[in-house]
Specification:
Elements lengths: L1 H25 L1 H6 L4 H9 L3 H23 L9 H17 L1 H7 L6 H34 L1
Length: 147
């Protein structure tokens, strides 16, 4: 179950990385669809470096999340600070996903279906990381006590 949870988190992270890497190729409309801030969309329309550089950085961060999820699933043998990074990633994903809640109450007219779905996906990734961590922790405690 822990391996499956980490693989789910890896899939979500990889998908997020790919859509960010694709954004500069697909143009300003893609940035707008992904709810990028107006300054980023304006940068994409103007052809400046800000939008593609930001998309590349976010895509790279999401790809690193994918690598740490794969490490948790046992698909990669070693990454530095894996448990600490996985815990941090879980917390960031959960916080990002839950950010929609106050906005739903404060600014419901500004919320799109996309915002809610994206937040649910972030929560799913955070829960997947958290479940993977908890199951890995329980299994390592069980192995340590049987030695």
């Amino acid at each position: 179950m822990g391996r499956l949870a980490f693989l789910l988190a890896a899939g979500i992270s990889l998908f997020g990385a790919l859509i960010h890497f694709a954004a500069p190729l697909l143009g300003p409309e893609w940035y707008a669809f992904l709810q990028a801030p107006p300054g980023v969309v304006a940068s994409a329309r103007a052809g400046t470096w800000f939008a593609p550089a930001g998309a590349a950085v976010i895509g790279a961060l999401m790809f690193v999340c994918c690598l740490y999820a794969l490490a948790g699933a046992g698909r990669l043998h070693w990454l530095p600070f894996a448990q600490m990074a996985q815990g941090t990633i879980a917390a960031v994903c959960l916080l990002r996903g839950l950010l929609v809640v106050p906005y739903l109450y404060k600014f419901p007219e500004r919320m799109w279906t996309f915002d809610v779905i994206a937040s649910l996906i972030w929560v799913a990734a955070g829960i997947a990381f958290m479940v993977g961590i908890m199951i890995a922790s329980v299994s390592s405690d069980t192995q340590a006590s049987s030695v």
